[in-house]
């Protein structure tokens, strides 16, 4: 039975890839103003894909309702609750974006095609049903209609990837227009400035509302982009789980707790607040004048260098703690964990490409404005920090959770008054070395969630030493765990902080101008537009992975 299913997996993956390539070529043709290709053609293709996915999801939900009494296999590692909450937040903001697009269409309805009005309505319905589907069925291990379901799920994966590509391209074109205008203020007049304008060729019926809608759309696009890439990853895990044999064992729940991570949270919040302030100042100052733009770029680099240096230090400390601990790795088959590791390394390549481009530009450039020298340590630290952080995250998610010490089987409940035992529950199981204890003044202590027993009477010295050693080992282990949790919390907030600047238009790769002179304007802009989406996604994915690491530690 595995041979036909393997063929179905290959056929469905090829179907999805061709679906994606056709949409990608259509998107590219619209972006370069190809003859005979308009935005309505691209939107019509995307609407068709979304409608097909909607039909498949409705069919799957209806079939699940009719079989709700059957016991279904579940992948406990897939579709974590915090991941579902994250995608729901992004989906809500995406719905606001759709409402802005509808308002924008109404105001420019005289010169926009019908597809531009149908698209946001279809997209809103698609978003609502897809989030509901992922909440209810992200953990499913499909064992029936497997061939059909493979095509349905892979269609959903590549539909979301195309919607992500469309969002990235639209947002990048907007950023590029702003970037071209800023270059003039930095003195790069030798670069040809030609704005790529896709604006409607008619007047707006309500000028104020049109301005709000057009500006608001581009501020909301980062959330829409992250929503679609998260949805595609969750659906990909669902596709990989089709027909999989799952081991039936109860996964230990690992809820997130704020207790014990105060230090990491405080330092992380300082980084987050300072980053938001930096972005606000950067967006206000950049493009105003040459002096203000240079000061904004210098401020960006100095802040980023400080944050990246702290992150590198924290990551090295965490790796050293891992080296000191003797913990085995969990090598069991886990599609979600494997995908997380592959995405970390794959998306990090985007920012590594930009960093190496900046390093080569600094080395090869003939003239070096003062602010460009800060780009060199910044680019080097970006490469080193992601290298260290990837190693820490991947090792952490593969480490087996620490099990309860075998010497401690169960806790006997003791009520103590004036040094004597007043009441003692019946013995359930042995507490220490499998032997029942006597009620001779023995007193349990709790130290950092580990149990220490003090023996009174003759011959207790050796046991006291053994118990003290046992408690000391547990105290050291708990201290290491607390440090790791604080580091994970700090890195979590730092990655959220570093996601904000590029997601909301603070992109020195565009604005410093040195790379454009060395590589040429068009080649460098192509590199940035291809690599930047992966760099942005890396930060939000790293934050999600670090949240999981914090829960597991």
From TrEMBL:
Keywords: Cell membrane, Hydrogen ion transport, Ion channel, Ion transport, Membrane, Transmembrane, Transmembrane helix, Transport. Pfam families: Otopetrin. It is a multi-pass membrane protein. GO terms for molecular function: proton channel activity. GO terms for biological process: inner ear morphogenesis. The chain crosses the membrane at residues 15-36, 42-61, 82-106, 218-239, 260-284, 300-322, 343-368, 483-505, 517-538. It comes from the Eukaryota. PANTHER family: PROTON CHANNEL OTOP, PROTON CHANNEL OTOP1. Belongs to the otopetrin family. This is Otopetrin-1.
